[in-house]
């Protein structure tokens, strides 16, 4: 059964109170992407242009292994990855304490409306299409963040 994003956002507010941050603060981003070039471009965009702190992983399993020691505010997740795809990674992240309501934005080259709708149905905060514009990516993420945490 899918949980509404509003319910997950409320749960996130409760889970994150101990951090001393308000819901409007976005600092830490977990980025899961198998393509090294895209990881590099995204890191430069998010850190240099956006001013975010970014933890990057080349696949689902490395991200899952590190997740218990991290507290990201938001996750950018590639859909098509070898070994463990984005949807499986999404569901497994949701099982980790503290991750049930972290907004997850899928990043994909699949441009069909049906793919976007399916990802939103399983609980994605939003879907960003590749190739993304590195100069506008941070603003795009902030706009999504503002919308889902309002």
Give an account of the 3D structure.
With 150 residues, the chain is of the alpha/beta class. Helix content is 43%, strand content 16%. The chain has helices at 5-16, 36-49, 60-66, 86-94, 113-121, 137-149; strands spanning 28-32, 53-57, 74-78, 104-108, 126-129. A five-stranded parallel β-sheet has the order 2-1-3-4-5, sandwiched between helices. The longest helix is centred in the N-terminal third of the chain and has 14 residues, at 36-49. It is globular and about 30 Å long. Residues 1-23 have low confidence and may be disordered.
Strand content: 15-25%
Largest sheet: 5 strands, parallel
> Uncertain regions: pLDDT < 50 for 5+ in a row?
1-23
Series of H and E elements: HEHEHEHEHEH
Percent range for helical residues? Answer: 40-55%
Shape annotation: globular
**How many β-strand runs?**
5
User: Order of strands side by side in the largest beta sheet?
Assistant: 2-1-3-4-5
Return the structural class.
alpha/beta
**Radius of gyration, taken over Cα atoms and rounded to an integer in Å:** 14 Å
Mean pLDDT: 88
- Structure annotation, total helices: 6
Q: Tell me the span between the first and last alpha carbons.
A: 24 Å
């Amino acid at each position: 059964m899918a949980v509404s994003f509003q319910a997950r956002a409320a749960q996130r507010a409760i889970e994150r109170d101990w951090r001393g941050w308000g819901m409007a603060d976005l600092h830490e981003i977990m980025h899961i992407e198998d393509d090294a070039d895209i990881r590099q471009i995204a890191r430069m965009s998010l850190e240099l242009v956006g001013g975010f702190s970014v933890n990057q992983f080349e696949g689902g399993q490395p991200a899952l292994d590190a997740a218990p020691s991290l507290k990201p505010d938001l996750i950018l997740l590639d859909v098509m990855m070898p070994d463990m795809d984005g949807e499986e990674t999404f569901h497994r992240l949701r099982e980790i304490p503290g991750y049930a309501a972290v907004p997850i934005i899928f990043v994909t080259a699949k441009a069909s409306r049906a793919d976007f709708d399916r990802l939103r149905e399983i609980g994605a905060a939003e879907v960003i299409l590749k190739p993304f514009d590195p100069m506008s990516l941070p603003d795009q993420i902030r706009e999504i963040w503002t919308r889902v945490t309002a």
